[in-house]
């Protein structure tokens, strides 16, 4: 995912769509870059929803380090 | 001729499975539950091969192997070490004492039978 | 517009911010946190969008088109891998109570003081241009708004008769002091600050969108019209990133912004230190990039409209957001845009100056004061006010530095160029942090070398030339190189030409930085503390590591004086609350004159870390118990690195008499370490063997059954029975290994309560009733039913009785077994004896039967096969209950296993 995003946003890929031609009355580079951007955000959102987070440790502020249990 | 195999192993269920497999392969089988018994069984009658566990009560498998391979009269007995000790250092030690094969538990029954047959009947393979 | 109105609105806005911060803090004190949710968190990270975004992006877009975008695409890319990098940093900050990026790096490399101060210095100098950028934008926008009709009004010089920028700097300094240094927090969460910053993020977003909507749909009739008209005016070069296929700067800026979102001091502070809950990141990971996208949609339209409106006149494109509404007569909108720009700039300045002042105080000034003994820890006196003073003094200094840079260099540079100079400085932290997160081998000298080299190259190739260009250094420094040496030209170092200045600087600084870090790290040896910290950071998810290396503290400090020490930094009340809370959790009573144990010392260090940073906290605790910090525990932590410890102790031996005692301790520790190591090894191979034995039978019989031939029905039945039994044995074994491991690691969840002994014993006996009947064993009960309750975990106590009785079933006579269970009051509480009529325990075994995997072999086939762990578990449980378990032989020669558990108080 990360590599794919880097690949499409950096040269040489970028020079493919980095043109001043118009699509739907809007410059091509403008719409493609924002489109890719929106797509990446969508992918992150979907990915984040699926991922089960590692459990957060309870506030470790002053948590005791128990040495009990060793006899 | 029928080859004879001595099973030196203290875990009853494993003994049972080995007994079954060896009989099925056409060998005659004797059993020793500890190291001392194994030596006594060999003294009584030479087997063709010994399936030898290492962690045996009273006298461990290394020592039994050493006794067999160190005795010119016995050294023709094939020793197959059959053990749960999987570390390389144990394997090297056993092979250094002259063991003919080193098989770790859990073993594949097919491989075990093939290995024993191969050691006993080298020309037929 | 009237200057008075603008000043009034500005201060009213700052007043609102202050009110929000105050409200946020009040809510936090009442325990109803305002900021503990993912949306506020996301908005607070949006401090990333400063006046650079608000004004500078438009300026950049008006000149070079779409290439303002990498600054926002870079962070988006970083959030693609949030779960790998960011979450790890956050976890580490929480576990180690990190207060800043300097604290993070210094803590990672062995709580190294020099490293912490170097990072602080780089951060301060590197942030200076960035702060100057904000000051510049506020001053320019202010002057524009009040003097638009009066274009000859100079940028300095203004209605107050003094420099507007200086006034702004002073006002912001006061504001930051009021905001961030009201009191010392031992938790380092500033709820009020976070709430205010989140609010600012909303304001700047709406202000920018308002201007964008006005331009796109008010001035023009939508995107299509706007782009069409621009094309008609020949502005199509703005529609692309690069017209000549040169993407060098695009790549550089993407890389820089990726580093910046993680390592800019204020960014690190907001996203890692102020993070309340790791799960918030899950939302922020997509919501923050979305924020960036939304705030950037109208950049190009505003730039284009500015170009069209001011075609032919020399109007500063950096201010289009303001000048375009004014041009179209929308003075209210312009005022709103000004407030948006103000919010963007103030949020950056406030957070950056607070983050930097914390670093200056914790990682630079306090360690120096302590080192030079200017602060005497043994005297009494409130030190928290000293901490606050240091921070309050450093904030104006930081802002004045920014102002100075503004006076020196800002005039000749655009907003974006200034910002990128700062980004490149922040990127210098990347190797030390990323390396430190994933590579244990990084050393403090390596990090020091890399950071210093990278920083020097940055100074030489970016900062100094910016001075030269504004005339503070001779200009031929750039054109001819230092001392006229051509290969020292700052924009073409060593003859490297053909890159833009930024890519050139990034390349050389990273080359020197990464090179220095890796090479020096690989060549040097790690000290024990570097190794420990390396493990704690790289393996932060590994729960088996302790949370803090300082478990190793051992000293003779009384609890009262320790509490007093902590109190002087965080305030006596907070210190007392912290200590009481700790005592409550640990279930003991604080007695002031007792010696603080290592856990309490570690907790005190942790409390101090939150207030003054880990390196300083360590120095303070260390100085209190000086000379005793090479403890056994520290050595134990190096379990797997025995040989290095031996060398270490040998080195210490050489170091004469004063260290003799220490080295003796070390040698003992070493010996125990070796025993420990071989024990661990034996234990693992024993576990492996114990698991393999049942597996062997299962597999062998399974394969025999699978082959199918030559097995009778009776044999099949027998073999299946064996497989079942061995599987059960395997399950039992695994359960018990896990239980035992948990107990030994102290991670068992005990639910202690008052437990009635009689009913517990009866419950356990009911569970083994089947087994007893199966073997025709006679059970004799002799239970004292009037016994008081004991303090225990009920389920675990049942387990103990079951394990011991099962053991007795195995070893009593067969047939004709008799087991006797009795309970009565003993010397130390409840005494339970379980005896059998078997052949007893051999005296030489008596000491070992409670060891793991001790098994008395006994080849009786109908017996459930023991795991060799049952009694070991019993011992763990009983000793947790603070009781005793032991074995004897009875009068009739059978075995007697007895245990005692204290009665509940």
In short:
The complex is a heterotrimer of chains A (71), B (125) and C (905). Chain A has helices at 2-9, 14-17, 28-50, and strands at residues 22-23, 26-27.
Question: What does it look like?
Answer:
- The complex is a heterotrimer of chains A (71), B (125) and C (905).
- Chain A is mostly helical.
- In chain A, 49% of the residues lie in helices and 6% in strands.
- The termini of chain A are far apart.
- With 125 residues, chain B is an alpha/beta fold.
- Chain B is built from five helices and five strands.
- In chain C, a hairpin with a 5-residue loop joins β6 (884-889) and β7 (895-901).
- Helices cover 64% and strands 5% of the residues of chain C.
- The model of chain C is unreliable at 149-160, 544-551, 626-650 and 857-864 (pLDDT under 50).
- The longest helix of chain C is centred in the C-terminal third of the chain and has 48 residues, at 660-707.
- Chain C has 905 residues and is mainly α.
- Chain C is elongated.
- Chain C folds into five domains: 3-417, Sodium/glucose cotransporter, CATH 1.20.1730; 428-542, no CATH class; 546-635; 638-748, Helix Hairpins (Orthogonal Bundle); 752-901, Histidine kinase-like ATPase, C-terminal domain (Heat Shock Protein 90, 2-Layer Sandwich), CATH 3.30.565.
Q: Tags for this entry?
A:
heterotrimer; B: 125 residues; alpha/beta; five-stranded parallel β-sheet; 5 strands; C: mainly alpha; Sodium/glucose cotransporter; 5 domains; two-stranded antiparallel sheet; 64% helix
């Amino acid at each position: 995912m990360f590599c794919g995003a880097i690949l499409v946003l950096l040269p040489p890929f970028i020079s493919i769509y980095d043109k001043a031609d118009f699509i739907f009355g809007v410059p091509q580079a403008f719409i493609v870059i924002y489109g890719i951007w929106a797509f990446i955000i969508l992918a992150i959102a979907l990915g984040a929803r699926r991922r089960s987070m590692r459990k957060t440790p309870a506030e470790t502020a002053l948590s005791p380090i128990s040495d009990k249990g060793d006899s | 001729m029928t080859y004879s195999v001595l099973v030196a192993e203290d875990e009853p269920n494993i003994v049972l499975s080995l007994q079954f497999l060896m009989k099925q392969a056409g060998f005659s089988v004797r059993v020793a539950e500890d190291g001392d018994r194994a030596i006594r069984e060999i003294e009584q009658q030479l087997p063709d091969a010994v399936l030898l566990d290492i962690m045996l009560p009273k006298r461990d498998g290394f020592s039994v192997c050493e006794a067999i391979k160190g005795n010119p009269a016995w050294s023709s007995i094939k020793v197959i070490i059959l053990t749960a000790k999987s570390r390389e250092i144990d394997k090297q030690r056993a092979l250094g004492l002259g063991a003919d094969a080193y098989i770790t538990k859990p073993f594949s029954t097919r491989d075990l039978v093939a290995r024993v047959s191969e050691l006993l009947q080298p020309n037929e393979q | 517009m009237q200057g008075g109105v603008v000043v009034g609105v500005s201060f009213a806005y700052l007043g609102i911010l202050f009110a929000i911060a105050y409200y946020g803090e009040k809510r936090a004190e009442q325990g109803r946190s305002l900021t503990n949710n993912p949306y506020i968190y996301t908005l607070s990270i949006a401090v990333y969008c400063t006046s650079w975004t608000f004004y500078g992006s438009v300026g950049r877009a008006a000149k070079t088109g779409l290439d303002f975008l990498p600054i926002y695409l870079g962070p988006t890319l970083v959030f693609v891998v949030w779960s790998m990098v960011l979450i790890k940093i956050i976890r580490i900050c929480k576990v180690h109570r990190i207060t800043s990026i300097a604290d993070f790096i210094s803590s990672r490399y062995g709580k190294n003081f020099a490293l912490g101060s170097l990072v602080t210095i780089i951060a301060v100098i590197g942030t200076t241009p960035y702060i100057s950028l904000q000051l510049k934008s506020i001053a320019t926008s202010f002057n524009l708004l009040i003097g638009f009709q009066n274009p000859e009004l100079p940028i300095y010089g203004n209605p107050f008769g003094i420099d507007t920028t200086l006034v702004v700097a002073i006002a912001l300094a006061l504001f930051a002091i009021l905001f961030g240094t009201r009191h010392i927090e031992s938790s380092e969460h500033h709820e009020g600050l976070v709430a205010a910053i989140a609010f600012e993020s909303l304001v700047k977003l709406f202000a920018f969108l308002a201007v964008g909507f006005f331009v796109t749909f008010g001035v023009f009739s939508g995107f299509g019209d706007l782009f069409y008209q621009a094309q008609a005016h020949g502005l199509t070069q703005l529609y692309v990133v690069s017209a000549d296929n040169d993407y060098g700067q695009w790549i550089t800026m993407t890389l820089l912004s990726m580093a910046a979102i993680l390592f800019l001091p204020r960014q690190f502070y907001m996203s890692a230190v102020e993070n309340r809950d790791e799960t918030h990141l899950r939302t922020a990971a997509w919501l923050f990039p979305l924020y960036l996208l939304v705030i950037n949609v109208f950049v190009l339209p505003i730039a284009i409209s500015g170009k069209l409106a001011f075609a032919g006149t020399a109007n500063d494109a950096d201010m289009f957001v303001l000048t375009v509404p004014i041009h179209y007569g929308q003075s209210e909108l312009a005022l709103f845009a000004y407030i948006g720009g103000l919010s963007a700039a103030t949020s950056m300045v406030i957070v950056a100056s607070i983050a930097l002042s914390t670093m200056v105080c914790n990682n630079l000034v306090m360690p120096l004061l302590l080192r030079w003994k200017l602060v005497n820890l043994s005297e009494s006196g409130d030190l928290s006010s000293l901490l606050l003073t240091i921070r309050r003094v450093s904030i104006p200094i930081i802002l004045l530095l920014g102002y100075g840079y503004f006076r020196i260099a800002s005039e000749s540079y655009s907003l974006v160029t200034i910002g990128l100079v700062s980004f490149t400085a922040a990127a210098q932290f990347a190797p030390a942090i990323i390396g430190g997160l994933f590579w244990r081998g990084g050393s403090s000298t390596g990090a020091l070398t890399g950071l210093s080299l990278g920083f020097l190259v940055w100074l030489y190739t970016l900062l100094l030339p910016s001075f030269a260009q504004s005339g503070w250094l001779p200009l031929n420094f750039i054109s001819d190189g230092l001392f006229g040496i051509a290969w020292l030209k700052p924009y073409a170092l060593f003859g490297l030409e053909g890159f833009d200045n930024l890519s050139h600087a990034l390349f050389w600084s990273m080359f020197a930085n990464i090179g220095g870090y890796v090479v020096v790290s690989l060549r040097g040896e790690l000290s024990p503390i570097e190794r420990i910290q390396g493990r704690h950071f790289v393996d932060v998810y590994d729960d088996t590591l302790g949370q803090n290396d300082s478990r190793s503290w051992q000293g003779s400090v009384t609890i009262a004086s320790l509490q007093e020490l902590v109190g002087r930094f965080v305030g006596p009340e907070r210190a007392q609350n912290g200590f009481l809370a700790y005592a409550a959790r640990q279930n003991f009573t604080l007695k002031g004159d007792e010696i603080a144990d290592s856990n309490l010392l570690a907790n005190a260090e942790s409390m101090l870390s939150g207030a003054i940073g880990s390196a300083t906290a360590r120095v303070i605790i260390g100085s209190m118990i000086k000379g005793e910090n090479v403890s056994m525990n520290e050595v134990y932590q190096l379990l797997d690195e025995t040989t290095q410890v031996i060398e270490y102790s040998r080195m210490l031996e050489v170091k004469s008499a004063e260290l003799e005692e220490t080295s003796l301790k070390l040698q003992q520790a070493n010996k125990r370490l070796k025993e420990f190591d071989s024990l661990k090894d034996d234990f693992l191979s024993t576990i492996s063997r114990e698991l393999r034995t049942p597996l062997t039978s299962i597999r062998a019989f399974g394969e025999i059954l699978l082959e199918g031939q030559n097995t009778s029905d009776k044999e099949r039945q027998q073999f299946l029975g064996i497989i079942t039994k061995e599987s059960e044995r395997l399950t039992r074994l695994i359960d018990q290994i896990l239980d035992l491991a948990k107990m030994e690691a102290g991670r068992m969840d005990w639910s202690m309560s008052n437990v009635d002994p009689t009913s517990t014993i009866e419950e356990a006996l009911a569970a083994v009733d089947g087994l007893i009947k199966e073997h025709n064993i006679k059970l004799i009960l002799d239970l004292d039913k009037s016994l008081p309750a004991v303090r225990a975990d009920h389920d675990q106590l049942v387990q103990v009785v079951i394990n011991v009785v099962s053991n007795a079933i195995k070893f009593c006579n067969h047939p004709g077994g008799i087991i006797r269970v009795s309970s009565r009051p003993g010397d130390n509480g409840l005494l339970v004896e379980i005896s059998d009529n078997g052949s007893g325990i051999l005296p030489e075994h008596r000491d070992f039967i409670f060891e793991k995997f001790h098994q008395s072999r006994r080849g009786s086939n109908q017996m459930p096969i023991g795991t060799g762990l049952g009694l070991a578990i019993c011992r763990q449980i009983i000793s947790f209950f603070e009781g005793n378990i032991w074995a004897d032989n009875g009068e009739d020669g059978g075995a007697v296993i007895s245990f005692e558990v204290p009665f509940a108080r």
